[in-house]
Design goal:
Order of helices and strands: HHHHHEEHHHHHHHHHHHH
CATH class: Mainly Alpha
Number of domains: 1
Strand order of the largest sheet: 1-2
CATH superfamily: Ammonium transporter AmtB like domains
Distance between the termini: 5 Å
Number of strands: 2
Largest sheet: 2 strands, antiparallel
Radius of gyration: 22 Å
Length: about 450
């Protein structure tokens, strides 16, 4: 217990400053003012989501499935918080988990206000949506929208897409875990969502998006979610630099296993839900998702054994996530056998990427780029190879070549755009915690909370 006293003293000192009458910092006054403004907009906006009389066009089975699928995808974000939280050091578990969990609140409000409109509003030259089209969910009601949701209420389509927008910035947090200021992360998350995520969603999924018009296939987010998060994570690792202490034992392996299970479960909504209907395409995506993940997990652990490493629980969990990432762009376009190969290929490539990344000076804490960035690229390449009727194996090269071009465009846009956003954020407020705060741990220094006595202490 004696060894834990410094942590208790710091915690008490932090708490002693949190008096209700303390003078608030200017940035919090501004943020709270924006929250009040959002309430005013919400109260007086005409959302158009009142009950619709056009129920004849709605397919009840499709609607029921999409409600469930949206809930599945929401479940992935707390799953990610357990997955990441178990991997970091003991003194950073709460902060790491909260960085994922808080996205559910922040991005939900931002998506309602303007994010959905930027992603799916009236297209401006295939590059971005008109922010006024669906501002504050205007015209987002219970009737179907023939451009996006022919058999389901437009509102559930927007909520389903919201869950993708939520998890993307949360994925990035693994790269700068254990050293980022929480308020800086909140600012970065908002800017990333507006400036990187919504344009990518528009390019890829809007009927007039330029990547979609090129024939680029991304069934459920290989480019929009995973490549963008992976390249943004690489930018974050570069900007924030190395941790003071890189080597640590994962705080809680069972958390990692639990998080992986939640992600695997939720990913069925992620991929099968992207069919937007309760039909055979959803079943196909469900099956390919499971088999690619299983293949990646077994390939990874056997590859580890082959090169003389121990078969580890963490390796198996990371591999499962890599398989989920890689099959995401291809889930509705490939056969079950092809999905097994995609999982196999992604596991080998990402395993090697993790190994070689560790030999560089880049401190991507939880290997977000080797797993999500590289895994997403493998998935996109192999989608261009195997996609039914238009893939390379069917004698068609156009889709494959456009996929290669799209990877370059998306990678450059996400990486350099994120570098710009990190610099903007650092201009507003300091990005990284101090050395003392990092040494103490972000749980206490950022949130005045702790899991309790550290392992090995009495």
């Amino acid at each position: 217990m004696v060894h834990f006293l410094p942590y208790m003293v710091v915690k008490l000192k932090v708490k002693s400053k949190t008096n209700f009458m303390n003078k608030p910092k200017p940035r919090y006054i501004i943020i709270f003012g924006l929250i009040i403004l959002l309430q005013v907009i919400a109260l007086f906006s005409s959302s158009g989501n009142s009950a619709s009389t056009e129920t004849g066009e709605i397919n009840q089975a499709d609607t029921a499935w999409m409600i469930v699928a949206a809930a599945f995808v929401l479940f992935m974000t707390p799953g990610l918080s357990f997955f990441y939280g178990g991997m970091v050091s003991f003194k950073n578990v709460i902060s790491t988990m909260l960085q994922s969990f808080i996205a559910l609140g922040v991005i939900s409000l931002l998506w309602y206000l303007v994010g959905f409109s930027l992603a799916f509003g009236e297209s401006y030259h295939g590059l971005i949506g008109n922010p006024a089209t669906f501002f504050a969910f205007k015209n987002v009601g219970l009737a179907p929208n023939p451009d996006f949701s022919a058999t389901i209420p437009f509102l559930i389509f927007s909520l389903f897409q919201l869950k993708f927008a939520v998890i993307t910035p949360a994925l990035i947090t693994g790269s700068f875990a254990e050293r980022v200021k929480f308020t800086s992360y909140l600012i970065f998350m908002c800017l990333f969502s507006l400036l990187i995520y919504t344009p990518l969603a528009h390019w890829t999924w809007h009927p007039e998006g330029f990547l979609r018009n090129w024939g680029v296939l991304d069934f459920a987010g290989g480019t929009v979610v995973h490549m963008s998060a992976g390249f943004a994570a690489l930018a974050g690792a570069v900007v924030l630099g190395k941790r003071e202490t890189k080597n640590h034992q994962p705080a809680n392996i069972p958390f990692i296993i639990l998080g992986t299970a939640m992600l695997w479960f939720g990913w069925f909504g992620f991929n099968a839900g992207s069919a937007l209907a309760a039909d055979g395409l959803a079943v196909q995506a469900f099956a390919t998702t499971n088999m690619a993940t299983a293949s990646a997990m077994i390939t990874w652990v056997m590859f580890d054994a082959l090169v003389g490493r121990k078969i580890s629980a963490m390796g198996a969990c990371i591999a499962a996530v890599v398989g989920l990432v890689a099959i995401t762009p291809a889930a509705g376009f490939v056969t079950i056998g092809q999905s097994i190969f995609i999982g196999f290929a992604a596991a080998i490539v990402s395993n090697l990427a993790v190994y070689y990344k560790q030999r560089t000076s880049i401190d991507d804490t939880l290997d977000v780029f080797p797993c999500h960035g590289v895994g997403g690229m493998v998935g996109m390449i192999l989608t261009g190879v195997f996609a039914a009727d238009v893939g390379l194996i069917y004698g068609e090269s156009t889709t494959f070549l456009y996929h290669l071009l799209a990877m370059v465009i998306v990678g450059a846009f996400a990486f350099f755009g994120s570098l710009f956003i990190f610099n903007i954020t650092s201009w507003i407020t300091k990005l990284r915690v101090s050395k003392d705060e990092e040494s103490i741990g972000l749980d206490i220094s950022q949130h005045a909370e702790t899991l309790g006595i550290m392992p090995g202490q009495h």
